[in-house]
Write a structure and sequence with these properties.
Strand content: 5-15%
Shape: elongated
Largest sheet: 2 strands, parallel
Strand order of the largest sheet: 1-2
Number of helices: 7
Helix content: 55-70%
Distance between the termini: 32 Å
Radius of gyration: 17 Å
Length: 134
């Protein structure tokens, strides 16, 4: 797939979790290695389309401010892979707790899905809450 088409796909994605959006954005931007001038415009459009996704703001700000944007993408991907938020959350929530989540926060759901002692309340947000119910 051409990198611009890949970026359009990412920009049009609705209800996707922030981690998947970040990975897809990194993969699409890597395709612009020979057209590096398009990186800034592409990131602006991605953030514009997904303005409430903090992980994309983080990714794009790191890439834009880096001397080597492709090296920055690799570092960001490593940091996403090494993120311990889910395990820290799993350890921090007391046994038998009630947990309220808004939408489909993948990190929260992945971190707490194995905790059968918890009771979840999912608040629908932009039509993505159904994806959290299993």
């Amino acid at each position: 797939m051409h990198p611009i088409e890949h970026l359009r796909y990412v920009a049009r994605a609705k209800g996707a979790d922030p981690v998947s959006l970040a990975y897809e954005t990194i993969n699409a931007l890597r395709g612009l290695r020979h057209e590096s001038a398009g990186i800034i415009l592409s990131m602006r459009r991605i953030v514009q389309r997904h303005s409430s996704v903090g992980k994309l703001w983080w990714l794009c700000s790191r890439v834009v401010n880096a001397p080597d944007p492709f090296e920055a993408m690799s570092r960001c991907e490593d940091e996403i892979n090494d993120d311990s938020t889910a395990s820290n959350l799993r350890a921090a929530i007391a046994d038998g707790s009630r947990v309220c989540v808004v939408g489909w926060p993948t990190t929260v759901l992945n971190g707490l899905a194995s905790r059968s002692d918890l009771k979840f309340f999912v608040v629908e947000s932009g039509g993505d809450g159904d994806s959290a119910v299993e």
